[in-house]
């Protein structure tokens, strides 16, 4: 764990990434990408709250790791969480990446078939979902 300082040096990559994945292209823009003078790349997900135990389990880190590997081949890459409230930078190690990437592939396949699952595994995240106000599950229409 490191502390944020004003002494960061290097270049920031602010470009949108196009990631070839499961025969499709996924487009995303990482929160922060710092390319250090020695060539190391630090990809960070910015969180506004305090550090949580479950953050590292989020499947987005597997996708960031996959995308960074393709974008910066042969480069030392670290995937991190930057917590603004506590000014901490926490490395996120690879765990179950293939399983998590398979979940993305399954979701892409379901979307292509017109299957949009409306029963989330964990409804605690529903209020933060961009579909909250239109979701049949949340609004009690789905059984």
What are the salient characteristics of this protein?
143 residues; alpha+beta; six-stranded mixed sheet; two-stranded antiparallel ribbon; 2 helices; 20% helix; 25% strand
Based on DSSP secondary structure assignment, what is the total number of beta strands?
8
Mean pLDDT across residues? 86
List the secondary-structure elements in sequence, H or E: EEEEEEHEEH
Q: Enumerate the strands of the largest sheet in spatial order, edge to edge or round the barrel.
A: 1-8-7-6-5-2
Low-confidence parts lasting 5 or more residues at pLDDT below 50?
none
- Residues in helices, as a percent range: 10-25%
Largest sheet, strands/sense/barrel: 6 strands, mixed
Write structural notes for this entry:
The chain has 143 residues and is of the alpha+beta class. Helices cover 20% and strands 25% of the residues. It has helices at 60-71, 97-112, and strands at 2-3, 11-12, 17-21, 24-28, 32-35, 41-47, 77-83, 88-91. The strands form 2 sheets. Strands 1-8-7-6-5-2 form a 6-stranded mixed sheet. It has a two-stranded antiparallel sheet with strand order 3-4. Strand 3 (17-21) and strand 4 (24-28) form a beta hairpin. The protein is globular and about 50 Å long. The N and C termini lie far apart (44 Å). The model has no long low-confidence stretch (mean pLDDT 86).
Topology:
Layout: E1 2-3, E2 11-12, E3 17-21, E4 24-28, E5 32-35, E6 41-47, H1 60-71, E7 77-83, E8 88-91, H2 97-112
Parallel strand pairs: 6-7
Antiparallel strand pairs: 1-8, 2-5, 3-4, 5-6, 7-8
């Amino acid at each position: 764990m490191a502390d944020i300082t004003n002494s960061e040096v290097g270049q920031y990559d602010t470009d949108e990434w196009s990631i070839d994945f499961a025969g499709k292209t996924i487009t995303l823009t990482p929160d922060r990408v710092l390319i250090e003078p020695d060539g190391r790349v630090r990809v960070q997900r910015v969180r506004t709250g305090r550090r949580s135990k479950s953050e590292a389990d989020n499947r987005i880190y597997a996708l960031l790791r996959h995308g960074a590997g393709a974008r910066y081949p042969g480069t030392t890459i670290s995937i991190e969480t930057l917590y603004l409230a506590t000014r901490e930078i926490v490395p996120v190690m690879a765990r179950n990446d293939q399983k998590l990437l398979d979940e993305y592939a399954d979701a892409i396949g379901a979307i292509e078939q017109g299957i949009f699952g409306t029963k989330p595994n964990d409804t605690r995240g529903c209020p933060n979902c961009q579909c909250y106000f239109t979701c049949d599950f949340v609004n009690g229409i789905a059984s």
